[in-house]
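Consider the tokenized backbone below.
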């Protein structure tokens, strides 16, 4: 109270001393309640920070949570763009992104399951005829890169020696699955963990759902496509998210079919995982010098070796894989990855750090899961995947002949879609 009367007297004195009637001294009324509030105010060094949630629910992944391969050209950067501050998804605004979890039954959210493969062939999306529509040739979206046997990027198409005014003469390079000097999948297309719950990778998809370069978010729900009772491996990836980009498109990959269990319609995503099985084609054996017999079951790969007996041998589980623990599944798959892709100095064998790490990703991040079920939705592609996808050699489409010729035979091959492009 003494402070109150002192300040009152000071005001009266100031008014009397100033002829213009204005108060020229800064006056602060500070009662007993204000003093108590000041004592409770946190210091400026407090670590408690409240960040308002953006309308899209997207949160930038911090650099401390990112796990990427050493030597990667991609890095984690903070963006100063306005779109980044609003939390909007943009393939050009951020290196890494977190994605909202899709809500089952929500708009655009559907059911599916994941399989796996790595045949090392030239990607489907590296063929010209799969990146061009003769009725709508623009805009050119770009073409998927491919590499040589030593994993160096090479051209995806070349000029044909019969090129002329009526024949564009652009022909795709051959696949290593068809010829010894053909093109392969580049090793940096192996899956990578961004953090404990987010990973990026590539996949083969049915052409009815995906075009080359489109991306989908897969959120695993803890189920197993093959059996109604999931293994511990499937439960271990429940709620994890993976963003995949379509680099291969195959008619054998299912779209909107009745799933084995639950009476639901689902779509298959065939994820590219080194050691996931070569499937119907195989260029991996000759690329890294591993006999096909060592690559596991054609459709299933190294994990299928564990399923079909190795896990019994390693751990002596009486009831086989039905009673194996999560740790036993992971241990068996890690041993398989070491055997096939490890740096074991076997004569004639090529070691690839990317392939080794991609196989280990299956054991560590993907928890040795076999054909897990999921929910999916279409999303914007993160920069990490676009950097790994697009060719840096062929950045423009080859010119079309004018006028576009009618179909006719050139060197015994007519499969060039009126553009001069053919297999």
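A designed sequence for it:
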């Amino acid at each position: 109270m003494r402070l109150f009367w002192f300040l009152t007297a000071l005001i009266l004195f100031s008014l009397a001393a100033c002829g213009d009637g204005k108060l020229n001294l800064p006056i602060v009324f500070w009662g007993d309640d204000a003093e108590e509030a000041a004592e409770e105010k946190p210091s400026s060094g407090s670590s408690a920070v409240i960040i308002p949630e953006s309308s899209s629910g997207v949160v930038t992944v911090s650099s401390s949570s990112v796990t990427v391969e050493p030597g990667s050209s991609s890095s984690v950067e903070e963006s100063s763009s306005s779109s980044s501050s609003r939390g909007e998804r943009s393939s050009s605004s951020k290196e890494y992104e977190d994605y909202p979890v899709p809500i089952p039954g929500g708009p655009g959210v559907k059911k599916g399951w994941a399989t796996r493969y790595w045949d090392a062939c030239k990607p489907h999306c590296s063929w010209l005829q799969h990146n061009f529509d003769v009725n709508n040739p623009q805009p050119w979206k770009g073409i998927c890169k491919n590499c040589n046997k030593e994993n160096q990027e090479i051209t995806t198409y070349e000029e044909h020696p019969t090129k002329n005014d009526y024949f564009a003469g652009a022909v795709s390079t051959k696949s290593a699955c068809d010829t010894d000097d053909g093109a392969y999948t580049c090793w940096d297309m192996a899956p990578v963990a961004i953090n404990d719950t987010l990973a990026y990778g590539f996949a083969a998809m049915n052409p009815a759902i995906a075009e080359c370069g489109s991306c989908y978010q897969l959120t695993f729900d803890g189920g197993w496509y093959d059996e109604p009772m999931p293994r511990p491996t499937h439960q271990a990836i429940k709620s994890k998210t993976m963003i995949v980009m379509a680099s291969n498109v195959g008619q054998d990959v299912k779209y909107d079919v009745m799933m084995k269990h639950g009476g639901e319609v689902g779509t298959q995503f065939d994820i590219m995982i080194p050691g996931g099985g070569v499937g119907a084609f195989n260029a991996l054996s000759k690329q890294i010098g591993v006999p096909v017999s060592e690559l596991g079951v054609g459709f299933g790969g190294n994990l299928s070796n564990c399923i079909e007996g190795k896990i019994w041998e390693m751990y002596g589980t009486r009831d086989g894989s039905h009673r194996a623990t999560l740790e036993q599944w992971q241990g068996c798959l890690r041993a398989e990855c070491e055997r096939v892709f490890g740096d074991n100095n076997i004569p004639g064998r090529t070691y690839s750090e990317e392939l080794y790490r991609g196989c280990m990703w299956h054991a560590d991040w993907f928890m040795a899961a076999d054909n897990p079920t999921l929910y999916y939705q279409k999303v914007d592609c993160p920069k990490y995947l676009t950097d790994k996808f697009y060719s840096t050699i062929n950045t423009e489409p080859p010119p079309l002949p004018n006028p576009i010729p009618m179909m006719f035979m050139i060197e015994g091959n007519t499969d060039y879609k009126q553009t001069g492009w053919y297999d």
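The chain has a mean pLDDT of 74.
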